[in-house]
Design a protein that fits this description.
- The protein is α/β, with parallel strands linked by helices.
- It has 20 helices and 14 strands.
- The strands form two sheets. Strands 1, 2, 4, 5, 6, 8, 9, 10, 11, 12, 13 and 14 form a twelve-stranded mixed β-sheet that branches. It has a two-stranded parallel ribbon with strand order 3-7.
- Strand 4, helix 4 and strand 5 form a beta-alpha-beta unit.
- It starts with 19 loop residues before the first helix and ends in a 5-residue tail after the last helix.
């Protein structure tokens, strides 16, 4: 028989049947438990990823060994390795073998490029006392060494007989103006020039316009017998393939094409040692110029600038401008989560002579970074984004290797490259220097706080940086000093340039050797290790941080500083309101992006939605720099696309930013007032539109 219903609760495994409100609470508990069951593992994984990245940063720094970098540099500098020569090919193979032996995936990309080599040069002087003598054009021991004789690449051949020497100081416009005021005419003379900040090609071109028939150029320094080689070609990249990669069998212009002809000087030039230059300058008579034209090396007695009475006989025979094969070498570490986003570390490998400072101090550091990354990979590390180590060729002739690669891969670089980190001369002497696009300032500072200073015990690079400079002075990248130029100024890729020491006395001479480095530049290779620390950690952050460490608030502040300076230079009916308004909008967009980045960094989930949200923000941060490019490029120099950073056409311009505006200001001095003001105003509007585009890029919209 069935039992009668009871008012008492029935017994269960839970002890009793709960009342309705307890049932609701229990259901809520189950939902919460389910949520955390789904999401806690990904949150834990996200936290673990951050902790793992920090662990590998410490591991990376712990793998430093001074002796290893020293050994790399020794091997790289056993022989001179001028681009296009057999020793240069052997050096490329050494780098490629090093990457391959570490287990890294390697690639070699070849280009055909027009290079230039010397055949014969001579210089003799006839002095007023009747003496005549041949002047040496090579360094002591250079004739027997393997190094190429001193020359200016792409200088035309030429011979000058019985031309008077004239000293033109740095060869600037103001120097020629001072000479004219003193009654000095340089027409038909050989101009003796002291090397300054302006490019060699620009100095020679101005001398030709002033009527000089040849140029002798020297660089003051401690090594009075050293001779500084270099290029006098205008522009970057292979002159036969302007704007596209010079691949085998591809399109190339003819040598007689006007585009090519305009890139080479019209008169011959040669580098000479300070010693030879002083022997000529001490013999000159004529007007005496102000003291800043002369160095103490010339002696206490004032000397004239000429012309004459010393007469020079000059011969330079360019062996040939010949097509040569150059080799870019790459090592690729594939990203685990975003293999289609690339962080590039680059250094050029070719050298005028042995290249211990320029550039192989940087090459040795790049090889050491590869070694450290390979060791980390054996311990389980793999970057989230792809890291590419780049070893460029033919930089000394005009950034040819890097430029050809950028031109060939322009669309892919524009859509996929996070940043380009450049080191040319890693170590020139004491003192840490860095250049960057402004959104990378904060990252540079944070990394500098983590790397030991090589010259001060118990201090970081950041500490010494502050003590030395009082403020953090990060330079900007408007020059065409190294391989960052094509990446930033043509492709709009955020860039960094790092080095120790501002100047060194053996630049481009036969004395730039391993012995000089071990005796003077960095005897213990501590500075090399410091550069490896900063360079490698920058790349690790850019490859592994879930949100790219870009801060465009710094960029907005920098743009505002530029505009404030511009106010002091523009006059008349020129107004800066368009730029001012666009910067205000950009600053607002930058702050919004920074706030969004901070919130997303705090999100620890690895949910698919959040991952996509982070990638979208990263793409906006990555692509904002591209907005400063203009498809038409600078007026008369269309290859240079960046409207914020690039070289002004006038080397004496007071602006090292907004190159289009700088060019218009310089050109306006040769125009009617209204035409000049209109030209400047047009460039102001171009910059304003570029800044507006950058704001839209940061916000991810297509409507302003």
């Amino acid at each position: 028989m069935s039992q009668p219903l009871s008012s008492k609760p029935t017994t269960t495994i839970f002890g009793s049947v709960p009342p309705p409100h307890w049932t609701l609470l229990f259901l809520l508990f189950l939902c919460t438990l389910g949520f955390y069951t789904l999401h806690l593992p990904s949150s834990a994984a996200a936290f673990s990823n951050v902790r793992n990245a920090l662990r590998f940063h410490k591991i990376y720094l712990s793998f430093a060994t001074n002796s290893t970098v020293s050994a790399y540099l020794r091997a790289l500098t056993l022989h001179p390795h001028l681009a296009g020569t057999q020793p240069a090919l052997q050096t490329a193979r050494y780098v490629q073998s090093h990457f391959a032996d570490l287990g890294l995936r390697t690639h070699t990309v070849e280009y055909r490029a027009l290079l230039s080599y010397p055949l014969h040069a001579s210089l003799s002087a006839h002095f007023s006392d009747g003496n005549a003598r041949e002047l040496p054009l090579v360094e002591p021991g250079g004739a027997e060494a393997e190094v190429v004789q001193p020359y200016h690449a792409y200088s035309p051949s030429g011979a000058v007989a019985g031309a008077q020497a004239v000293y033109v100081n740095l060869g600037r416009e103001e120097d020629y103006l001072a000479l004219r005021r003193a009654g000095v005419d340089v027409k038909g003379c050989v101009a003796v020039v002291r090397r300054g900040e302006e490019s060699r090609g620009g100095v020679v071109a101005r001398a030709a316009r002033e009527g000089a028939v040849a140029v002798l150029m020297y660089t003051e320094g401690e090594m009075v017998s050293g001779v500084e080689r270099g290029t006098v070609m205008k522009g970057l990249g292979d002159p036969l393939t302007p704007g596209w990669g010079g691949v085998e069998g591809g399109e190339a212009l003819n040598l007689e094409d006007s585009q090519i002809f305009d890139r080479f000087p019209k008169i011959p030039s040669m580098p000479i040692s300070p010693e030879v230059a002083y022997s000529i300058l001490r013999s000159l008579e004529g007007p005496q110029m102000s003291h800043h034209w002369w160095s103490d090396a010339l002696g206490p007695e004032p000397v004239g600038v000429g012309p004459g009475p010393t007469v020079l006989n000059f011969t330079y025979q360019n062996g040939e401008k010949k097509m040569a094969t150059i080799h870019n070498v790459f090592a690729v570490i594939r990203g685990s989560k975003e293999p289609d986003r690339f962080v590039l570390l680059g250094n050029h490998r070719d050298a005028w002579t042995y290249g211990a400072v320029d550039p192989n101090s940087g090459t040795a550091v790049l090889l050491d970074i590869a070694r450290r990354y390979a060791l980390m990979m054996r311990q389980g590390w793999q970057p989230q984004r792809t890291i590419v180590l780049c070893s460029w060729d033919a930089e000394e002739f005009g950034m040819i290797g890097s430029t050809e690669w950028v031109e060939q891969n322009l669309l892919n670089l524009g859509s996929k490259v996070v940043a380009y980190l450049n080191v040319d001369c890693a170590v020139q002497g004491p003192g840490f220097f860095a250049g960057a696009t402004p959104q990378l300032d904060n990252l540079l500072i944070e990394v500098a706080k983590k790397v030991k200073d090589p010259d001060s015990v118990g201090m970081t690079i950041y500490d010494n940086w502050m003590i030395t400079n009082k403020v953090i002075n990060i330079q900007r990248l408007s020059g065409v000093d190294s391989d960052f130029a094509p990446f930033l100024q043509h492709a709009g890729v955020p860039s960094v340039d790092l080095y120790y020491g501002r100047d060194f006395p053996v630049y481009h001479t036969a004395f730039d050797s391993y012995n000089w480095m071990t005796n003077y530049g960095d005897p213990l290779f501590q500075r090399h290790v410091a550069v490896a620390g900063v360079w490698g950690l920058l790349a690790l952050h850019l490859a592994d941080d879930t949100i790219l460490p870009f801060n465009y608030v710094s960029y907005a502040e920098q743009l505002q500083n530029y505009t404030n300076h511009l106010h002091t230079l523009v006059k008349g009916n020129v107004y800066l309101d368009p730029i001012t308004a666009s910067i205000q909008e950009f600053a607002s967009a930058a702050e919004e992006a920074e706030e969004e980045a901070m919130k997303l960094r705090e999100e620890e989930s690895n949910s698919e939605f959040l991952v996509m949200k982070k990638r979208t923000l990263n793409d906006r941060l990555m692509l904002a720099e591209r907005s400063f490019l203009d498809a038409d490029g600078l007026q008369g120099r269309p290859w240079f696309k960046h409207l914020v950073y690039g070289p002004p056409s006038d080397s004496e311009s007071k602006l090292v930013f907004f190159p289009g505006i700088a060019d218009a200001i310089s050109a306006s001095t040769r125009m009617k007032r209204k035409e000049g003001e209109a030209a400047i105003q047009h460039e102001i509007w171009r910059v304003a539109r570029a800044i507006e585009s950058a704001s839209s890029a940061l916000r991810g919209g297509i409507f302003h």
